TrEMBL record:
Record protein name field: Transcription factor 7-like 1-A HMG box transcription factor 3-A
Lineage start: Eukaryota, Metazoa, Chordata, Craniata, Vertebrata
Source species of the chain: Collichthys lucidus
PROSITE patterns cross-referenced by the UniProt entry: HMG_BOX_2
InterPro entries hit by this protein: Catenin-bd_sf, CTNNB1-bd_N, HMG_box_dom, HMG_box_dom_sf, TCF/LEF
Compositionally skewed regions (Polar residues) per UniProt: 391-410, 423-432, 546-556
DNA sequence: AAGCCTTTGAAGTCT
DNA sequence: AGACTTCAAAGGCTT
């Protein structure tokens, strides 16, 4: 397994990350606020950090500018003003703890160097408010924090108790100025420090600033000289870009979190909850890659439909070298670190149900069309138990992913490279409507397609197409092996150089070797029915919220 | 207008 | 422990 970052073999395990993060925080305690280091330096330092593999925090600290006394005094002044404003708000009953406050800085163009994808979601905690002595801490990557903003870590302390966090630890709750661009409304574009989103508005700020945020902004605006006027958009107004907070129109009720009236029915409450701004999940490597590459794909392929683009990107992702992917894994790792710093108490669970409509569960999807109810020709061929390998631990994630991928790919060849498919069944690729299922559905296909890039591993069972699946570790080289920079992800095999709209030509998307319109809908009979296991695996992403064949058929 | 589609990865819950 | 579920982005499409 290649060491992608050249050295430390940094494990991306969450726990490890947290440990590393704490270490960083400890290091950061010793640091002081930097003045406006050029953002590019931050980006480059970040990249360098990645490339040089986790250069020590000390060295990072060394690279940081020393605090400017003037800035320090200014910082203290601003901190005081900010706190006063907050207290006024609170005293007026306008302030309420909310997980969604604390990102007013996005509204301050002058603070262009201060930005964060995940500004702390909490308002001031009592302890935090009294923690002026808490060392100003910065994210190691945020060497450029605006002096006006880096003073007040307490201002961004999550309201929610953060089990693992103690103000005394010095862990920063300061918005780490991840510099997620702020978009609309004339607000300055702020570049993400991680550098993959230049020129993009990565996270739209949600409308709906908390009183704390408003107070903060008011306080800050009074301090920031110049002609700009901080744009505070009331909750009822249009969305304000924020990295990690989704738009909302929800009103903040005094005295606590948004508690709907008792008369409010659950459905309404759920809707309200869904509308709440919330801290979003940090983007994973692929998401980061998508963000970066999507515009290119759109430009190259003249395709705007995200589903199509995502398919292309998915294939391109697989064609990346491990080194290329490592870049994104590393960025994602940093993203998670930053996120964990900004929101120590945040959990992905917090966002459960934030989607407007929950995807159906396994049991729900299983209710769709029981296999036994399917016509014989649609039933999945059975494999004798003795021929079915036991589920292998190595298969789990891969199988899951592949089941998902295969089943969600319209033509189920998402992981088959052009070469492989050409070698496997050049005449039977799905390009040919006459033999649309030859490569994948015929019993002979597995052997032909069982290249190092091709495996059908549904937990060591059988693919939806009936072929027996072999444990990856025993038979074929996994199409994707765990990426060293990924916690529980797997990466593609040998790279296939990508070019413009270069997904495999055998791909449904690339049938014409160009970025072509989405493939024609599959004929329903082309895709074998799915076992419940397959369905569940695939349905986890909603791809099979209705049976694949049926879903595609609907488009006919 | 709301949700779907589509991708991979992370992290949560469930069994 | 492993399986399963949800969400993250995005924008055209469908209902």
């Amino acid at each position: 397994m290649p060491q992608l970052t050249g050295g430390s073999g940094d494990d991306l395990g969450a726990s490890d990350e947290l440990i590393a993060f704490k270490d960083e925080g400890e290091q950061e305690e010793k640091r002081n606020v930097s003045s406006g280091t050029d953002l590019d330096d931050v980006k480059s330092s970040l990249v360098n950090e990645s490339e040089t593999n986790n250069s020590s925090s000390d060295s990072e600290a060394d690279r940081r500018p020393k605090p400017d006394p003037d800035l320090e005094s200014s910082r203290a002044r601003h901190s005081q003003l900010f706190e006063e404003a907050l207290r006024r708000r609170q005293d007026a009953g306008l302030f309420q703890p909310s997980p969604y406050v604390g990102y007013p800085f996005f509204m301050i163009p002058d603070l262009g160097n201060f930005c964060s994808p995940y500004l702390a979601n909490g308002a001031l905690t009592p302890s935090a408010r009294t923690s002026n002595n808490v060392p100003v801490v910065q994210h190691p990557h945020m060497t450029h924090l605006h002096p006006l903003l880096s003073y007040s870590p307490e201002a961004f302390s999550p309201q929610r108790a953060s089990p693992g966090f103690s103000p005394d630890t010095g862990l920063s709750r300061t918005p780490h100025a991840a510099c997620y661009p702020v978009s609309p409304g004339g607000v300055a574009q702020i570049t993400h420090p991680l550098g993959w989103l230049q020129g993009q508005s990565m996270y739209p700020l949600a409308g709906g600033f908390s009183p704390a945020a408003l107070a903060m902004n008011a306080s800050m605006s009074s301090l920031v000289s110049g002609s700009f006027s901080p744009r505070l958009v009331p909750t009822t107004q249009s969305s304000i870009p924020h990295p990690a907070i989704v738009p909302t129109g929800v009103k903040q009720e005094p005295g606590g979190s948004n508690q709907p009236g008792k008369s409010m029915v659950d459905g309404q409450q759920e809707k309200e909850d869904a509308k709440k701004p919330h801290i979003k999940k940090p983007l994973n490597a692929f998401m980061l890659y998508m963000r970066e590459e999507r515009p290119k794909v759109v430009a190259q392929c003249k395709v705007k439909e995200s589903a199509t683009i995502n398919q292309i990107l998915g294939q391109r992702w697989h064609s990346l070298t491990k080194e290329e992917q490592a870049k994104y894994y590393e960025l994602a790792r940093k993203e998670r670190l930053l996120h964990s710093k900004l929101y120590p108490g945040w959990s992905a669970r917090d966002n459960y149900g934030k989607k407007k409509k929950r995807k159906r569960t396994k049991s729900e999807t299983q209710l769709e069309v029981p296999e036994e109810d399917l016509p014989p020709q649609l039933k999945r061929p059975r494999v004798p138990p003795e021929e079915t390998p036991h589920t292998h631990s190595l298969l789990t994630q891969t199988a899951h992913t592949h089941a998902r991928s295969h089943l969600t790919q319209p033509h189920s060849i998402s992981h088959l490279t052009h070469t492989h498919l050409s070698q496997a069944s050049p005449a039977s690729s799905l390009d040919s409507p006459a033999t649309p299922t030859t490569a994948l559905a015929s019993p002979a296909a597995p052997a032909a397609t069982h290249t190092e890039h091709t495996h059908y591993s549904y937990g060591g069972h059988t693919s939806p197409y009936g072929e027996q699946l072999q444990p990856l570790s025993l038979t074929t080289k996994p199409h994707r092996t765990p990426h060293p920079l990924s916690r529980n992800t797997v990466t593609p095999g040998p790279s296939t150089p990508s070019s413009s709209c270069d997904t495999p030509t055998s791909s449904p998307l690339m049938a014409s070797s160009r970025c072509s319109p989405p493939p024609p809908p599959l004929q329903p009979f082309l895709v074998p029915p799915l076992s419940s296991a397959h369905q569940s695996a695939a349905s986890s992403h909603g791809a099979l919220t209705q049976p694949f064949s049926l879903r595609r058929t609907n488009q006919l």
